[in-house]
Every structure is written in structure tokens, then in C-alpha cells.
User: Fold this.
Amino acid sequence: MSHVPTMTYPEAMVVGLIQGITELFPVSSLGHNVLLPALVGGSWARDLNVSAPESPYLAFIVGLHVATAIALLIYFWRDWVRIIRGFFSSILGGGINTPDQKLAWMIIVATIPVGIAGLLFEHTFRVLFGKPVLAAVFLVVNGVILFSGEKFRTKKSLQADRDVAEERRLAAPTALQREPAAGVAAVGLATAGDASGMVVPPRRPGHGSHAAVKDSRTERAAEIAAAARADQRLSKLDYLQSIIIGASQILALLAGISRDGVTMVTGMVRGLSREDAARFAFLLATPVILAAGVLKAPDLIQKGHGIYGPILAGSILSGVGAYVSVRFLVRYFQTRTLTPFAIYCVLFGLVSIIYLQVR
Assistant:
């Protein structure tokens, strides 16, 4: 009798949300998806086992990559329009002359090593290393990598942080420049009175729905301009550096090692600012995550009969979690470090090792 795949809505939704968040946070989505069922136990350990030959779980979590990649494409859609346009214009024009053209080819050459490694070794790595205890061990290793990446930052990378911060400061308009009329009005109202002699409280700049929309547009325009400046800085990398940074994603085939984490650390080692290293990691991750999901889609269709509802629910939550995560992290890495994630990985990994050994 053939095995009928089982996956409940709670299982699929929890895994989907965790996948969407941990894929972009530098804490290893695969590590969490291997550890979670083992830690919960019971039907979770039976239904969500990446090593079971008839289980749709591995195809499911890799299939969730499609939802994650879609979230990344939605967030970075303007950037990808520029990059794709740069790719085709470089072919039609017969040369690489602009930052967008250079960045397009950097992403292509940087993706080749991990693409080849994934096709050749994904199954082997899953069989050998897709075990809960090993995932916990590699999660600790991931934490050490993140901590070391911050502890031993190169002078070039630290200077890049300062240069980016200064560039952002010079590019950021002041509140008065954004709303000069509102600023003048506020000053006048602060000293004016009504007929009864009472002081009229000044109206805050940005008050009201129209001003809120305008502020949101101004903020988004600033983000777009900052992204273009970041891509100009990234385009100064040579192709060898791009390949080295992209090849570091191969380590993420080990459950417990974060793709974005090792890519960021490698980028900082090569002299990128933390902010630019994070951006490059997200851009590099998009085609890899999308390709992995598309390649596993046939397996998911073949093995997922009867559980398409939970799969859809998990995918929706994965996409939402990924979008919220990347929106948060893009701003987070402008001023903050990888250290909190390093501490989390070490603690969660050690606790998981102890629990799995003594239960």
C-alpha cells in the first residue's frame, strides 16, 4: 500500500511562517525546519521529516521558496526592473557600461557556483546532514560565523560603514526642506492667538491623511534613491569578488547555516559595508530561492495530493513573513549588527542539542 502524505493546517502554517521569516533572517530556515519537528515530536516528527522518502515535507519547504522569492521580487521590483533592463541593454549594446549592467552580470556569475553545487549535492547533503542534532550543531557554527564576522570586521568594511552613513546623512532632506510651507506655518501659529487671546497650538507638519500619504511617498522616494546609490557602490566590486561572495551560499546546503548570514559575512570580509552586504545577499538570494522552488515544484505536485490546502496556507504565510522580514532587515542593517542573531543561533543550537540528547 502506498504511503498517503499527511500534513495538517497547523503544521503547514507554522512551517510556512517560520520559513518566510528565517529564510531572510540570518538564522537558517532549513535548520529551523529540520529542528522544529524533532523538538515538537509526535505527529510533527512523523509528518515533517526531510529524510522520509515518501514525505512531501522537503518538497514543501523548498516549494515555499517560491512564495519567499515572490515576496523579495515584490519588495525589490524597481531594482529588478533596472537590473534586468541593464542585462538586456548590455547584450543589445554589446558592452557593460552602467552600474545596472555591471550588477546584472555580477549576480549571474555569483549565482553559478551555488546553482551547480545545489544540483549536484543537495540530495547528498540532505541525507548526510539533514538530521536534527547536526542541524543544531551547524546552527551553533552559524552563530560563531556571524559573531566572528562582526568581531573581526576589516578596516575597509568599517570605513565603508562610515562612508555610507555620511552619504545617507548628506542625501537625507531635513523636515523643513520636505515641508517648508508647513514649517513656516507652524512657526507663525505658535506665536499667534485667537480672538479670546488663547494661543493656538501649532499644527504638526505631516498632520492629516494627505500629508501622511505625501510623507510615505517621500520616504519611499528616498529608499529608491538609496537603493540606486547602493547598487552603484556594489557595481564597483570585480567579478572575482562577486563569485567569492556568491559561492559562500553553498554552505547553506548544510541545515543550520544561513544563506544570507554567510553571504553577508563574506561580503563584509571583502570590504562591503554591512548595509551593502545585506542588500547584495538579498539580491543574490532571489534567483537562487526562486530556482530551488521551481525545481522542486514537480515533486510537490506529485507528492502533495490531498494536502494542497495546507500547502497553499503555508505558502501565503511564507510570502507575508518574507515581505515583512525583508522590509524590517533592510532598515535594521543600516545601523545594527549581526551579533543578536549570532547569540540567538548559539543559544538555540545548544539548547536543542541538550534537549535532543536527554529527552
Confidence is low (pLDDT under 50) at residues 174-203. The chain is about 75% helix and 0% strand. The chain has one domain: 9-177+221-358.
